[in-house]
Write a structure and sequence with these properties.
Blueprint (H helix, E strand, L loop, with lengths): L10 H13 L10 E5 L5 E6 L30 H8 L9 E6 L3 H10 L3 E6 L6 H12 L3 E4 L12
Parallel strand pairs: 3-4, 4-5
Antiparallel strand pairs: 1-2, 1-3
Helix pairs in contact: 3-4
């Protein structure tokens, strides 16, 4: 009897990989963020990426980061975490885990808390000193949501489509 493969990817690598693959669907020219929500028994429940709401054309709404507020993406884009929560059609997300490529903002933190997600595994925390991220961390901690940074393994994966 043969032995099992030893070089398979871990759950963290798998789910963060799904989050990054989801981010590749974003049409945002500057920031692509992906999210993957997973059940307590490691089943993928939902995925999301940052983009405009359904029915709002990515050719008609702005992708700019600077200028008059209504001429920037910020008031129109739905973040990956919120998209993943809203995309879920299976009922409760109570006790689920969220893998996301960028630490959630304060608005997404509210949705994460309200949805019952109990753990966040994030990669980048590049906005850690901004008021939104600081507020996010305060709320998540207060609500008992565990946050941990993904530990990169350096493993390379190549996909051909």
């Amino acid at each position: 009897m043969g032995s099992k493969r030893e070089d398979y990817i871990s759950w963290d690598e798998y789910f963060m990989g799904i989050a990054y693959l989801s981010a590749m669907r974003s049409k945002d020219p500057n920031t692509q963020v992906g999210a993957c929500i997973v059940s307590q028994d490691n089943k993928i429940l939902s995925m999301g990426y940052n983009g405009f709401p359904v029915g709002c054309s990515d050719d008609e709404f702005p992708w700019d980061r600077d200028g008059d507020t209504l001429d920037t993406k910020y008031v129109y884009v739905t973040h990956s975490e919120l998209n993943a929560i809203l995309n879920y059609r299976g009922g409760s997300l109570e006790g689920a885990k969220l893998y996301v490529s960028l630490f959630p903002c304060n608005e997404c933190a509210k949705a994460i808390i309200q949805s019952g997600i109990k753990e966040i595994v994030y990669d980048s925390d590049k906005y850690s000193t901004t008021p939104g991220t600081i507020a996010s961390k305060r709320m998540l901690k207060s609500a008992g949501v565990t946050c941990r940074q993904y530990k990169k393994t350096g493993r390379q994966v190549s996909l051909e489509f």
